[in-house]
């Protein structure tokens, strides 16, 4: 739902939502902090850094003293999982033997069959169950235990056909499949069942009905429009991202025989292969798909896996079976399977927010191959339509392209404009690259979450400063200017850096010496010209191109009792040292606000005592100059919240005193327009925290009263859905901290009640792993007469 402030989303409706609490009873966040945490007199003892615990398992959901949210994503880093599965040996190809010897009278492959964890329930998904059962058994034959996802196979097929047919097909609609699922599994890898568990029809329908953007179009398993199906199919409660990232199991070689007989089935079983067949269900008067894994001539029956109920192991008579009649058009069997490895092209499927040079939109990739062509992943000579791009201005453009480097790279045209896009292989939540217009390259950044960047206009001086960068998941801080430098975040080591002069104002050609055999890695950095503080581009390494993106590093701001707004740039952030540029006064009259918080990318939000919400943009943030846009009034009624804080891309959280966490998204964040989504309730129990802070990509931190630091990841932060990972304890000893700021690339600031400013790098900020760099005190005097401190 997208509305303006005039529709009441951030006006009277919000006030009514919390009216029972009484606005007069709410003190500002700053007043509460001053009341609760007395300031230590100057000259007191220095505070020891909080102890950082080792990596811990996620805590179970709890009530009372902790925020609760459903756990939907495994806490598992991406690269270590790939390393682990890479050690699984690949199978040797198997051929179907030809023999004139009499067939044995009894064959059983029961030892290779996995147990059904669930039946198909009330969904027409039998073909997915039969195909997956055949694939699991084929892996079992080479001693690879696989429990695979029927939910994912059913989804990827429906998404493919939704694109091809132009709507009316989605995972709520059963059937539309057959024994040829074995064929499909040669091209579509599937993930483990624990990553994408099966959802029966009632719960799946309830999910579709609960998604606002389906607008009821999928009620009662209706077809709906293609776009309504998209919002449902690519919801992370249907298919979690881990399922796309770890689709690793597929058929290498399969067999097929048309117009077959029972003897053909017996011969194939005797040769060592299970058979998938179509059948007519006499009891339910419809089609069905079964796996046959053995036969017994004495009983004149096949042994089958039937997904209609549990445990699913049954018999089927050769003739005149009371339940099923085998349809003899085509039977399929798996001969061999591929090594267990990720299918990179599958990672592109789903919904992305895109930003190319400030032009924003939503990219929906519905398929990565054409299952009907038997070609596999498309190359430059057989490009296909992959999806649709939806521009902010309402345009819809076809996306036609092909893949390179095993699917890691996507070369496509959106409309008639060419794009070179690459996954960040160490963080496939993001992608990026470049596009060309009038033969000039422009930067592209993509996220499964939210687009970022703010402001308008561009001049070359806006590239000068500190940038948080990520190239293929490798993070660091780049200084662009007269003395360029690069510090890698993982080890805080500075690398020699130089920049080539060039005539294109928005293009920065940088080079970084990473040592060893990589003494000159080139980076083509393309600053966005329609907004500030964001860049895309590519870097080259090992003869291949890789994505790069950068955001201007966040600065810290303070407001003292004199009302002056001061700007601070921490030049020692990347190596956790006490190094700062001289503070600069960039505003006055800021002490009158009830609360101030940073919105990222130079955006500042201010709440007046009467609850009016104002938007500012600090256009001079890269050098600390007095250059502003705003103030603009964008909402009312915000005095009802105990704490208000911002995540990425316009996401704002309001924490009520009763512990309810509300989500908003300020879609007008870039220019201060009054366009909003929300509010949606995304959590309860959050009043147990002393303070909460949000960082990029949906990461949140909260300090409990006993000093424990908890981490969450809000996977639904782009649309306000209650999809979370957490709660995970990532530290202890934080009880003397009253504020926390996560400023990007894992850097976390904390302010003590004594006014000391500390800094850490949380290496596990995307996963919740408890790995940190040792903290350092990087400032003193940040309490006392400080009315507000925030980062943006």
- Please tally the β strands and state the result: 45
Low-confidence stretches: 1-95
Shape by Cα distribution: elongated
Largest sheet composition: 9 strands, antiparallel
The radius of gyration computed from the alpha-carbon positions, rounded to a whole number of angstroms, is 29 Å
Please work out how many helical segments DSSP would assign.
10
- Beta content: 35-45%
Give average pLDDT, whole number.
88
Order of strands across the widest beta sheet? 20-19-18-17-25-24-23-22-21
> Helix content range of the residues, please?
10-25%
User: Termini, distance in Å?
Assistant: 27 Å
Class from helix and strand fractions: mainly beta
In short:
With 792 residues, the protein is mainly β.
Describe the protein.
By secondary structure, the chain is mainly beta. 11% of the residues lie in helices and 36% in strands. It contains ten helices and 45 strands. Strands 20-19-18-17-25-24-23-22-21 form a nine-stranded antiparallel beta sheet, with no helix packed on it. Strand 4 (275-281) and strand 5 form a beta hairpin. Helix 4 packs across helix 5 (150-165) and helix 5 (150-165) runs antiparallel to helix 8 (226-233). It is elongated. It starts with a strand and ends with a strand. 52% of the residues are buried. Residues 1-95 have low confidence and may be disordered.
Keywords:
single chain; 792 residues; mainly beta; nine-stranded antiparallel sheet; eight-stranded antiparallel β-barrel; 45 strands; 11% helix; disordered N terminus
